[in-house]
Amino acid sequence: MIDVRKLRMLAALQRLGTVAAVADELRLSAPGVSTQLTALEKELGLQLTQRQGRRVTLTPAGNVLAAHGHDILDRISLAERELEALRAGTAGFYTVTAFPSAARTIIADACRRILGDDGSALELRITTSEPEDALDALSSGAVHLAVIHSYSNVPRDIPRGITTRTIGTEPVWLATRSPQDRDGARSSTRLEDYADHPWVSATDDVTCFDMVERACGLAGFTPRIVAESMDFSVQLHLVAAGVGVALAPELTIEHVPDGVELVRPDPPIERTLFLAARTPSFADAGIQNLADIIENSAAAQLAARHQQHQRLR
Prior knowledge:
Pfam family, one: LysR_substrate
Keywords: DNA-binding, Transcription, Transcription regulation
Protein name: LysR family transcriptional regulator
Strand content: 15-25%
CATH topology of the largest domain: D-Maltodextrin-Binding Protein, domain 2
Family: Belongs to the LysR transcriptional regulatory family.
Organism: Nonomuraea purpurea
Mean pLDDT: 87
Distance between the termini: 73 Å
CATH architecture of the largest domain: 3-Layer(aba) Sandwich
CATH class of the largest domain: Alpha Beta
Number of strands: 11
Helix content: 40-55%
Low-confidence stretches: none
Number of domains: 2
Radius of gyration: 32 Å
């Protein structure tokens, strides 16, 4: 195996032209450099240097090896820089999954922050999945990091070996059709007052559906669900059309259609957002850095949405 330290001396001799210059750059003695180059020749069984007057120059074999040396040393230098970036958490490839409203807001904002940071070499692969599927993907090793949620009225079980980190909380809004004949009176916030109303909900295979059923059940009735959609913008437009009422988490509301009023239900419902990863993964510097970026994005997005919806009330 070629000694990289000696290869560095040979490449430096090709670049600098004299043994004295090599010794000065590497902070060695000139005789020490000559000795190491002679040792390299013996190890390889090739003459790499030759004397021309008082100077030492490279033979054709020496020039070939020195050229390879420059490439090898450049790759080593690049590897060292990348290893340092990995230690600092500013480099690496990670797969992140998030439920759709978090992907559209928090993860998109996190990507903007990463791409706008010239010092970051983080690379992401983004997928969307509901929390149940995201936790399965984490457990199987298919993804590195997941954004999941849990409702205040529907606790979520976290599988063994998965660690979570809370990154924010958002309110769930009750969306009703704006009353045009109440002289500006607001819609009731009491869920029991909507026992006889038709309801619009997410599909029955996700936690958002369970949240609606649980909220109505605690208010003393079973909701009469007349429409189901995983797209909350569809739900709100159906509310605007008079199809029914709906419960919508804040991040899911991109736009409030004309004719829709948002009120906080009584009792209130909240959705807590978590970052989840396999427990050992949170020791990874890249995961830690990425988690910090996503948490900052969550804080910014939740604050902006809250301010927006407060103005609409």
